[in-house]
Amino acid sequence: MRGPNPEPLVCVILPTLNEASNLPFLVPGIVEVLTTAGFGVQVIVVDDASPDGTAEVARGLAADLPVEVIERRGGRGLATAVLAGFERARGEICLVMDADGSHPLEALPPLAEAIRSGGVDIAVGSRLAKGGGFDAWPLWGRMKSRFAATLARGLTPMTDPTTGLMAVRRDLLRELDLDPVGWKIVLEVVVKAAPRPFAEVPIVFGPRLEGKSKQTLRVFWQYGMHCLRLYRYRWRRGPGGPAA
């Protein structure tokens, strides 16, 4: 059994659906890389009633690691799962990442440090920034990411709006009226926090560790609807003004 866990500084939120085979590798890696960098850690697994026993695996990890589990039976969806994690977070920094192992663990300390240093309130991992890229990803997947970035070009200068990897100051989240559609909470936070500056940390995006991708035509349709809603939000708010 672990000893008393200090008040966490970084809360890592993992929305999950059928990721039981990935958590035993991913969660210890998250804790190790952040504690080695001098951060306290709270990991929140938000599971949408996965039939593969993801929530049970997460609860088993909690015996030795600072893990909390939220198991949802209704209101499913990645973005709303992240919002549920935000509500449970105790650390001053919230960090959102995918639970499939595609986001590099070595990027977590630089993202958290960008917030801790006080320079910005949001830091995102970017595959499309200089120094970023894709590891063993098919050409079609890269093309989809670039097309998604083009759709959001009028919303934000962020190079990779579908990154899924973000660190944000928890105090900022309390100020935002978040109502995301579908899956991309990072785009929602960055757009609605504007004109606050954000930082980008280049990352190399890898293949998932185990399991099947959740990418479907419905997911991309939801992304398009999300962009449309955010364009309307920007139009109502006007440059630098409050939302109408």
Give an overview in words.
The chain is α/β, with parallel strands linked by helices. Helices cover 37% and strands 17% of the residues. It is built from eight helices and nine strands. The protein has helices at residues 23-36, 54-61, 78-88, 108-116, 139-151, 170-175, 185-193, 217-237; strands at residues 10-16, 41-47, 67-71, 93-96, 122-126, 133-134, 166-169, 198-202, 204-205. Strands 3-2-1-4-7-5-8 form a seven-stranded mixed beta sheet, with helices on both faces. The radius of gyration is 17 Å and the shape is globular.
Outline:
The protein has 244 residues and is α/β, with parallel strands linked by helices.
Please, how many helices?
Answer: 8
Biggest sheet details = 7 strands, mixed
Q: Round the Cα radius of gyration to an integer and report it.
A: 17 Å
- The geometry reads as globular
How confident is the prediction overall: mean pLDDT? 86
Spatial strand arrangement across the major sheet: 3-2-1-4-7-5-8
| Contiguous uncertain segments of 5+ residues | none
Helical residue percent band: 25-40%
Oligomer: single chain
Count of DSSP E strands?
9
Keywords:
244 residues; alpha/beta; 7-stranded mixed sheet; two-stranded parallel sheet; 8 helices; 9 strands
